[in-house]
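Subject: sequence -> structure tokens, single chain

Hey, anyone have a minute? Need the predicted structure for the following. Not urgent.
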Amino acid sequence: MTSTPSVTTLLRAWCSGDKEALDELTPLIYDELRRIANRHLQSERSGHTLQATALVNEAFVRLSDAELEIQDRAHFLSVAARTMRRILADYGRARRSQKRGGGQSPVTLHEEIVADGRAADIVDIDDALSRLEQVDARRCDVLVLHYFGGMTFEETSQALGISAATVDRDLRFAKAWLANELKDI
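Reply:
Had a minute. Here:
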């Protein structure tokens, strides 16, 4: 009886170019990636044409093209969550730049991230998160992992190597900072 390699072992093999490792890895992490994708899409406008499966597939394509050094499962999921956020932001930017299609669609990250009763869209949120990343990358990571990645405080603390109490403090700061950034939108 042969044992199945760990997710971390398969992730590292895949990142090193082993395409067969991806075949073994996919069924082990696919449901978790779909959960992250569904969480992202819950914040999108209704009738969004990008579906969770397409978002996961696009994330896999982008991650395959990137040179990654994955530490473990939690690190991979945090990278995947950030990648999905970027895909949705790119999708929103493309939609915004189309001549037809009209106005902006509301997208809420969380109840607190609403400016004057108007929800910010994914492009505004992504732009604000990029600014936060310049100011404080760790706090940005905490916010992205918790809201976009759907990670608990404990999972976020493990992924970033910080305490759950620090996650709580960073999250409160990042939410307040983001709300302030989005208030004039």
